[in-house]
TrEMBL record:
The active site is at 403 (nucleophile). Residues 1-32 are annotated as: Disordered. InterPro entries: MeTrfase_TrmA_CS (IPR030391), NA-bd_OB-fold (IPR012340), SAM-dependent_MTases_sf (IPR029063), TRAM_dom (IPR002792), U5_MeTrfase_fam (IPR010280). The lineage of its organism: Bacteria, Bacillati, Actinomycetota, Actinomycetes, Micrococcales. GO terms for molecular function: rRNA (uridine-C5-)-methyltransferase activity. Belongs to the class I-like SAM-binding methyltransferase superfamily. RNA M5U methyltransferase family. It comes from Humibacter ginsenosidimutans. Keywords: Methyltransferase, S-adenosyl-L-methionine, Transferase. It comes from the Bacteria. Residues 30-91 form the TRAM domain. S-adenosyl-L-methionine binds at residues 267, 299, 323, 376. This is Class I SAM-dependent RNA methyltransferase.
Length: 447
């Protein structure tokens, strides 16, 4: 790919284009609305968060809607930081061989950046190359933050390649703006973009979504279609109130049926529950697993991964599922009720582990050391406090399910400092056409 000797600053819509002195701080305001800075940029690599890295006069510019190897004209949208700016591609000057027509015209680079629907930020990239880029992000994070070299590939979910990576979302959240218009937010903004279609959603979700309608009040709309085909549409006002008691729905995974609230947490990809069940079952080292030990399912939700362990190791397996949301724990208790060794606890994981660290008996401590811990934290990861408490309890093995590889890499770095080694990791593309990727990693105590 030919490279220009130097990116040229340009002014939008005319021959003469504006630049700013390198390192100049422009305060908290974004680039002036009527005088946007436009830059010609050579895009070098992928960054975490669905953006790509270019440089302008020594400063990093994070650019959206492009990919490595492209030359683009990009409009600067954020100059608040000294060390980096943010910009949106407005025109592709030299496309990559991996560029495709966007799978969602509402998110395409042909639209003005403010009118592009968010949530499909890799939709212009060939599907296999999206996975290469996700791998690059994982490998870089593991190398920098955990000192681990990753050679794994990012695996597709069943059926995604055949469908071109569309029609996988079983739940969608739409927004309603002050004028009553319905749609997703634009990328990196709270501006609602009305859309005609939702190609990442399964057909039944798209059909149930009130696209093109008007609402009388601002807020959000959650559209969910269960694996059994039940449709639920929950409207919330701007302060998040649903206006009626939460609806209970059911999801089926293999022979199990899970009850949960329609707006409660459930894996978004229609195949994710079974893919993650199998991945977690496969990530446990049998030789280290003790069904009578103090086994834990942390951030347990309605019990999906506790059930994965129970179904693999049998009904005598003891496991305690810990979840902070009380209604969710109630559902987990019902979902796991047929299984004698399963317990559910409503608590924040960090509080629960601190309690175990300070109050458990010598016998419990021994059973914890012999235990297996599955943890599936939210996007922010487990965090330092939880990692330290967990490492202090020293369970025999951990299975870490991560929806943010960078937060995982940070936690892995801390776990390695505290005596754990990475025994294996898989990366699963459960979010095609977005930058997101799921990881399932096995860690064992190094002693
Ligand atoms: C990524 S979901 C995983 C749920 C479950 N493992 C599954 O696959 O369905 C994370 C869950 O952790 C819960 N959670 C978030 N922060 C928590 C905390 N500090 N302690 C306990 N649970 C937490 C959320 O309510 C959510 O149910």
């Amino acid at each position: 790919m030919p490279r220009s000797p130097r990116p040229r600053p340009q002014r939008s819509g005319g021959g003469h284009r504006r630049t700013q002195a390198p390192g100049r701080r422009t305060g908290s305001a974004p680039a002036a609305e009527h005088d946007p800075i436009e830059l010609e940029l050579d895009v070098a690599s992928v960054a975490h968060g669905g953006v790509f890295v270019a440089r302008h006069e020594g400063r990093v510019v994070f650019v959206s809607d492009t990919m490595p190897g492209e030359r683009v004209l990009a409009r600067v949208s954020d100059t608040r930081h000294d060390r980096f700016w943010r910009a949106e591609t407005v025109r592709v000057l030299q496309p990559s061989e991996h560029r495709r027509e966007h799978v969602w015209s509402a998110a395409s680079v042909e639209r003005d950046p403010a009118e592009r629907a968010g949530g499909a930020e890799f939709g212009h990239i060939e599907l296999g190359h999206q996975r290469t880029l996700k791998h690059d992000v994982i490998a870089d994070a593991l190398h920098r933050m955990a000192g681990v070299e990753d050679t794994s590939v990012v695996e597709p979910a069943p059926g995604d390649d055949e469908r071109g990576g569309i029609r996988w979302r079983s739940r969608v959240r739409l927004q309603v703006d002050d004028a009553g218009a319905i749609g997703p937010f634009a990328a990196r903004s709270h501006r609602v973009v009305p859309v005609d279609d939702l190609p990442l959603a399964i057909d039944a979700v798209e059909r149930a979504a009130p696209l093109g309608e008007q609402q009388t009040r601002s807020g959000s709309i959650d559209v969910t279609v269960t694996s059994e085909g039940f449709v639920s549409v929950t409207r919330r006002d701007a302060d998040g109130q649903a206006g009626r008691r939460p609806l209970v729905i059911h999801e089926r995974v293999g022979d199990r049926r899970f009850a949960l609230e329609a707006t409660g947490f459930w894996q978004v990809h229609r195949k994710a529950p079974e893919v993650l069940t199998a991945a977690v079952q496969g990530a446990v080292d049998d030789s280290l697993f003790d069904p009578r030990a103090f086994n834990l399912d942390l951030y347990g939700g309605v019990g999906l991964l506790a059930a994965a362990i129970g179904d693999r190791f049998g009904p005598t397996t003891r496991i305690t599922s810990v979840e902070s949301d009380e209604n969710t724990t109630d559902h987990a208790a019902a979902n796991l009720a047929d299984w004698i060794g399963a317990q559910t606890v409503t608590a924040r994981v960090e509080h629960y582990l601190r309690d175990l660290a300070t109050r458990s008996s010598a016998g419990e401590r021994a059973r914890l050391r012999a235990g297996t811990v599955v943890l599936d934290p939210p996007r922010s990861g487990a965090g330092r406090e939880t990692v330290e408490l967990l490492a202090g309890l020293a369970p025999a093995q951990l299975v870490y399910v991560a929806c943010d590889p960078v937060a995982f890499a940070r936690d892995l770095g801390w776990l390695r400092e505290r005596g754990y080694e990475l025994a294996g990791a898989r990366a699963l593309d459960l979010f095609p056409h977005t930058h997101h990727v799921e990881m399932v990693a096995s860690l064992v105590r190094a002693d």
